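Blinded run. Sample ID left blank on purpose so nobody reads anything into the name before looking at the predicted structure. Input follows.
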Amino acid sequence: MNKELKQLKFRCWHRGMREMDILMGEFFDLNFKNFTKKEISQLNDYVIPLSDNDLYKCFTNDLPWPKTLSEQLINKLSIYAIKRGLKNS
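Blinded prediction complete.
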């Protein structure tokens, strides 16, 4: 795993609120092997900076994901949220 992915992994697993650590950490662990450079950049720039409350609302579909995210990354996040039971398909 390269340095950029190691840093992203740390940021996903150490958000502040334990529940969000688990959600983002597991999302990272399940998907990091398939992340594109663009997705890594988007996660760092637009997802990680979200507050825990806003991030949870994005997972539950109470807030839209940032418009700057690629459709492919939004799909990965949405599929993960559905599998975790956070929103309906």
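Unblinding after everyone has recorded impressions. The helical segments are 3-13, 18-31, 37-47, 52-59, 71-83.
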